[in-house]
Amino acid sequence: MIGAWYKCPTCKNKSQKKTVTFMSWDSDIIKNLPKALSAEFPIVLTHRSGMTDALFSLQCSLLHKGLGTQQFRDILRVQHLRQFDQLQIQYLELIDYTRAASPWMNLIFGAFSSFDDPAGFAGYIPSSKWCRDAFDKFVESHCP
Prior knowledge:
The protein is mainly alpha-helical. The chain contains 5 helices and 4 strands; from the N terminus they run E-E-H-H-E-E-H-H-H.
């Protein structure tokens, strides 16, 4: 997610202290926008993470049809593993292509990292509890 950091020297926060910076995805800012504009925000955020609106919509549909959050998490894992495999294949094909060019013939290429290597791909998948909490927060926000 890419956003902006805004500076406002005259603004005050909820405790009436001067707050000079805001992130563009701040929930207070988004909820104060006109509905038509706030609907353009493509991410559902929690205090620690987020997921795209399209993925969240899929989760809602699957939960409404009886799928549990653990099964949804398993679906996410399969999709993340698929993306990881595609990136690894691209990497290996690029090495194969590069080795065909004579100046690169004897170059040693590093190994592709493992799926869960924190210094490499770092394949994070949210927990089923996180998925459930995000869904619950959404439902609660739409209740009177």
